[in-house]
Design goal:
Layout (H helix, E strand, L loop, with lengths): L2 H19 L3 E3 L3 E3 L3 E2 L3 E9 L1 E9 L1 H12 L8 H24 L4 E3 L3 E4 L4 E2 L8 E8 L6 E11 L3
Antiparallel strand pairs: 1-9, 2-9, 3-8, 4-5, 4-6, 4-7, 5-10, 9-10
Amino acid sequence: MRVEYINPFVESAFTILKEVLNSDVKRGEIYLKPTTMSIMGVAAMVGLAGDVEGRVLFDMTKETALSVAGAMNQEEFTTFDEMAKATIQELANMITAHAVSKLHDLGFKFDLTPPALFTGENMEVSTNLGEVEALIVPMEMGPGGKMGKIEVNVAIRERIK
């Protein structure tokens, strides 16, 4: 996985989260995971196709999703209703679109799928990308991480021609 593909997603997540939450955002230590992995409870996934193929996953607990949706809508959410779900999907859309825009400026060409949302306990997401590992960048939000953590999970490879 080339770093030119990853950095725009990390930078965009940091910038967009800070802006829409109007709060502190702190990047954690980057690490690798297999592309088959359990999700924390709520995950928005955007697929990528073109010069590269893969996906970006925004993984969080349900509590974090409720905090983020509440901050973005300036209201409190106690249930993960349709508005909260749409808000998390829109957040994934904003971050990914911002990153892809940066990548297009660098000459890379690819398209996005609309964000898909997965919720539930004991769920696993698999990606058929062969030997590619997912790069995980944790983002802690709010003062002292009080709003929770979103893991930006990027698994991308150059398209095999």
